[in-house]
Amino acid sequence: MSTQEKTLEELLLKEAVETQNEIVLFNDDVNTFDHVINTLIYACEHTAEQAEQCALLVHYKGKCTVKTGLYDDLKPRCSMLLDAGLSAEII
Prior knowledge:
- By secondary structure, the chain is α+β, with helices and mostly antiparallel strands.
- The protein has helices spanning 3-17, 33-44, 48-61, 71-83; strands spanning 21-26, 63-69, 87-90.
- It has a three-stranded antiparallel β-sheet with strand order 2-1-3.
- α2 runs antiparallel to α4.
- The termini are far apart.
- GO terms for molecular function: peptidase activity.
C-alpha cells in the first residue's frame, strides 16, 4: 500500500468519524410561508425551491431537517432562524 493510499484511507476514516448534526425546523401557526422561505434562503443558503419544499414539509409533517453539517457551522445558522422568529434546534 502506498503512502498516498494510506493517507487517503486515514482522511476518509476521519471524515466518517466526525459527527454530523442537523438543524430541525418546527411548524408554528405564526410565520407565513414567504417569511419561512426567505429566512431559509438567507440563513441556510437554500435555493428558492429547496426553501419552498422545506416549508411545505414543515407545514404538513410538523418538522423538517433544513441543514446538516458540523455543529460550529450550524450554530450561527440556527441562531439566525431563531432570531427571525422560527422554531428550530440543533440535534
